[in-house]
Amino acid sequence: MATVAVASSVPSGLAAAAGVRDVVVAGDSVTVRELVGPAAAGSGWEDDLDRLALAGLLPGEQRLLSLAEIALLLGEMGIGAAARGWLPARPVRVTRASQTVSSARLAAAGEAAVRRELRLAPGDEAAVVAVAPPRPLLAPLGKLDLETVARPPALRGGLWSVEVTGRVNGEAALACMVRYRVTVTGDVLVTTRAVRRHDAIGPQHVALERREVSELRGEPIRSVEELDGRRAARAVPAGTALTSEWVEPEPLVRRGELVEVVARVGPVMVVSRVVALADGGAGEAVAVRTADRREFVARVTGPGRGEVNPEL
């Protein structure tokens, strides 16, 4: 993760320093000419001088270099600045130029990431609010691109976390985590009366209401047509917002019913009528019993029909 500089409205203590020469640099290094100033002019080779790295100088930060520190830096490079009369007359205050990434821009990037992940149904409305607005951050000068990774909670509602990272000219420059509280409101079918387990749910049992759906488990059921071929998976109290968790497909085979089972062995096909010992939906395996009380397993292929699979 990139080292982050936080923007602050409090002036640096270095800003009050007197009798210094100010130098503003774009990166975390400074040229000899910038340090020495006019003293190096006219040497004929000052443009070839290397840059001096200022380790750990973050965007927006300042570093005050005394005359002794400047002489030591130049001496380590073997420049012999003192012999050339290049030592500046005053200390140098180096400021790394920066751009401020506002709190609003960071929060907006995170909110957009949350909304992309929500996948709202037509007519749904989402309120996405930052729990605590992020602090403004400082980044190096250059083209800034923000990237986001949203981490949703188990339910769509609740607290979302979004990691917002920034790259300047392709290099990692900043990172922060923003948390949002999300509420989704939409239409959902609500039971107007209690429904018993395994009973069909029809128009007489429900009404369409506008409710918060972000805390519901499962996908909200929004039309009566979605209930076709389904039944209550368990007892449903009145006033329940229906989701996929409350319903299950109607079985094609019911316990105690006669089932026509087909068994194929090579070119030979045998059809027999047996009794289902359990409910079963399409493709499910159910136990069945013959008239002479032999039991085996068949796979449901349609209403009142099944087949024997040699693998069962």
Structure, explained:
This protein is 10% helix and 38% strand. The chain is mainly β and 312 residues long. It has three domains: 22-97, no CATH class; 98-247, Type Iii Antifreeze Protein Isoform Hplc 12; 258-307, SH3 type barrels. The longest helix is centred in the middle third of the chain and has 16 residues, at 103-118.
Outline the fold blueprint.
Blueprint: E1 5-6, E2 21-25, E3 29-31, H1 32-36, E4 51-53, E5 62-65, H2 67-76, E6 92-96, E7 99-101, H3 103-118, E8 125-130, E9 137-139, E10 144-151, E11 158-168, E12 171-191, E13 206-212, E14 230-232, E15 247-249, E16 258-265, E17 268-276, E18 285-289, E19 295-302, E20 305-307
Parallel strand pairs: 2-6, 16-20
Antiparallel strand pairs: 1-9, 3-4, 5-6, 7-9, 8-12, 10-11, 11-12, 12-13, 14-15, 16-17, 17-18, 18-19, 19-20
CATH architecture of the largest domain: Alpha-Beta Complex
- Total number of beta strands: 20
Average pLDDT number:
85
Percent helix among the residues?
Answer: under 10%
Q: What is the helix/strand order? A: EEEHEEHEEHEEEEEEEEEEEEE
CATH topology of the largest domain: Type Iii Antifreeze Protein Isoform Hplc 12
> Can you tell me the CATH class of the largest domain?
Alpha Beta
Overall geometry comes to elongated
- In DSSP terms, counting alpha (H) and pi (I) runs of 4 or more, how many helices? 3
State the distance separating the first and last CA atoms: 53 Å
- Beta content comes to 35-45%
Structural class: mainly beta
Number of domains: 3
